[in-house]
Amino acid sequence: MSQAPAASFRDPALPLGARVDDLLGRLTLAEKLRLLHQHQGAVPRLGVDSFRTGTEALHGVAWLGSATVFPQAVGLASSWNTDLIRSVGTAIGEEVRAFHHKDPTGAGLNVWAPVVNPLRDPRWGRNEEGYSEDPWLTGEIAVAYCEGLIGDDPRRLRTAPTLKHFLAYNNETDRCVTSSSLPPRVLYDYDLPAFKAPLQAGVAFAIMPSYNLVNGRPAHLSPLINDLVRTWTDHDLLFVSDAGAPANLSELQGYFPDGVTAYAASLKAGVDSFTQDDADYGPSVQKLEQALADGLLAEGDIDRAARRALELRFRLGEFDPVSYDDVDPEVVNSPAHQALAREAATQSIVLLKSECCLLPLRPDLKSVAVIGPLADTLYEDWYSGTLPYQVTARAGLTERFESVTYCEGLDRIALKIDGGAGYLAAAEAGQPLTASPASGPDCWFDLFDWGGGAFALRSVRNQRHLSVNDAGEVVDDQPGPNGWEVKQTFALVERTDGSIALRHLNSGRFVTLDSTGSARLQDEGADPLTIFTMETVVDGAAQAAEVAAAAEVAIVVVGNHPLVNGRETEDRADLDLPAAQDRLVRAVHAANRSTVLVMSSSYPFSTTWAQQHLPAILWSSHGGQEYGHALADVLLGTVDPAGRLPQTWYRSAADLPDLLDYDIIGADATYLYYRGTPLYPFGFGLSYTTFEYGDLRLSSTTMPADGEVAISVRVTNTGDRAGTEVVQLYTHQQRSRAKQPLRQLRGFRRVELEPGESVEVELTLRAADLAFWDVTRDRPCVETARHSILIGRSATDLLLSASIDVQGERIPARDVRRTALAATSFDHYCAVTLADASPERGDSVHALEAGSWIAFDDVDLGPGSVTAFTARVARDQEGAATLTLRLDDPLHGTELGTIDVAPTGHRHNWLTLAAPLPEAVSGTHTLYVVFSAEGTYLDNLTFEPTPGKQDLSL
């Protein structure tokens, strides 16, 4: 009997499209629907296995057991080394494959990394997940990381990277219901480029929309998904929803009346895979089936999404006879990956201050004090892998010095119960805390201040943290803050008499002692909360000062806990170092002037006092398993500090706009527009040697709009040590119709030089890179202008400059007689935000208060050829309002006309209203549209020509 021929989709010699078509054609509608979920169902009759999207691999394989842990993403970026980051991506991709080979169901090959949201605001809770506040640098790093993840096989991907989170997502506060208002220039010049770079490079294969809304429309419904993003690459992209986001559309956001309508709209908008209900695809399939039955979807919509899901799997080699699955399982945490983790951690460390010849440390120091709450521990963040081992700062330095003393520097406290009931005390293992008549070790707790009013208490009895179990009992059984819902942190709520109450931060409830004397969370209507007096048993700062005073050098290691006060779901309110840590730093320095401050954190701090007083300061992100070795290498000068800051460090949160203000241009935010003096600028980082820059040369002093110019500069190591320098190229457009960045990164090179060695650094600048979004014509524009070429060591340490004339185009005046004037194409505004013009597409302007306005520069009204205008308006509040046009000033300018806007019931219910102009107006002006009341929406304006004039109407 002859064998049946193999299915065409299993033939790797066929074109990819033909293989996908063949498999798709063999599937039933029910089988295709099961592909549209994170956990795709198997098709046993065709030998097709189940498939899972979403292995977390931000800086190591997460949630699957012990794996190599590299520095956090922001730390990798601080290396400014794309070759290194590509190698890290390669290592992580290999480890993903190893986990997948061991457990194909539990470890999928579609990885949810990297995060490419520019780090617009350092208070964002997920700061450590991103790369940089600069979109170009973010894109360059993302490309390198993705290149490592996908491997170098031209036919098959090692893993399929997913870019997160599309779009304009930088706040955890109410993240599922807040809307990011993005004017067009911010959208196209700041938020989109970081996504575009890896897509155009062909190294990203999936994208995850974000939880938030953008201009009033849920990001999962963005028309940009199909209209723009998919045009940036020649392969199909799989858009995967964020976890639980599909339900948000009809629940938290209330954008649709039910889940069926929401699923249908998401699928049509371009979302192909629904991450909902954990591993159960059933509810999602049911909603899609109902949408088909209701006529909201056609089978072609299902086929389109299923095709994208299948193409990704084909690219991963699932249906090929040979793939990456022969990877050695021993690659996980292999010696080579450990060495790479050490190199990555070393290059990520940034030297922020170095005076008094304290650094590098002398290797012959007889006594070194290592102090601080992060001196002898490493922390995992939510997307870390499980640390296979820990080389802490203390461990790394102990290997290098003759005598290392250690002090954690924590206050040790006792909590005396109000009313004479004794002290809060630990009980037997797993039992709730109780009252003890006298203070002793069972009643003592080490107090961790993690900032933002969040404290953790560790029992001296068993070195376990206080937590709250499912029964609401306070127990001491946890290694520290952990989990998605952190239940190990408390607020110390101070009363007027100095006593305190303990409020459990996760639940918001207070700690009380019940009728049995057991500590638990207070129930509604229960006995009054218990009041405590906090007694200091050991003053941690004073104890640390004693240890520091006895050493030649004190190294104090502070920072954040990655799961407390700044993490996913929680933004920071300020930039301050936690108060107890700040007090510790000051006490150690007072005891020993030879103090080195080391910060290990997910984000910047406003350490102004330390910068003024301490001789040496270093920062790194949480550096992974090899952190201690890396720190020791940098502190002793075994390697030169190579890290540079990928984001601005501000002196205070007062230097920042509101967290929800996404208009970096209008708010003068990020290094691009910030006019103040930062604590440490973007790109900053010191070396143990010195460098001299000179001989700046340009291949041409003019450049056409489609040209490029070669830039060279000579860099010399003028010190007596080998060192690493990061040469940075910035530009500034000197004159423009639009507000331009003060400086903008265009390129960089890392160079390693021996003492006295020189190198010629060559960089290329393309005119196309100087384009910005022209709101008058709704397209990118290279403007005719002179640009400054700026070379230096950071965004504010610019050592050499030259000029180049770019021969682009001149932006003409807006001829409103020829086309409608989109409301969102404004140049300036006051008290407005952007909103959705319809659920599917289009943006509008929403007035937030009486007197709100938008302004359009350079409006050409012609030679007396406009006599009327129309406005497409809506109003979602009661009461009439007006919309008034004025020339050149919103309050006192000539009034052109006014339209009365009656309530329309909803912002999507549009009316087109007309009004005459008092007389034919002419000339070029700034046109203001002034709103008399909040709740008024404007889509566009049109202007009618004077009868008898040349027909220039729409």
UniProtKB/TrEMBL annotation:
InterPro entries: Actin-crosslinking (IPR008999), BXL (IPR044993), CBM6 (IPR005084), Cellulose-bd_IV (IPR006584), Fn3-like (IPR026891), Galactose-bd-like_sf (IPR008979), GH (IPR017853), Glyco_hydro_3_C (IPR002772). The keyword Glycoprotein does not apply. Keywords: Hydrolase, Signal. Residues 819-944 form the CBM6 domain. One of its GO terms (molecular function) is hydrolase activity. The keyword Amino-acid biosynthesis does not apply. SMART domains: CBD_IV, Fn3_like. PANTHER family: BETA-D-XYLOSIDASE 5-RELATED, SUGAR HYDROLASE-RELATED. Belongs to the glycosyl hydrolase 3 family. This is Glycoside hydrolase family 3 C-terminal domain-containing protein.
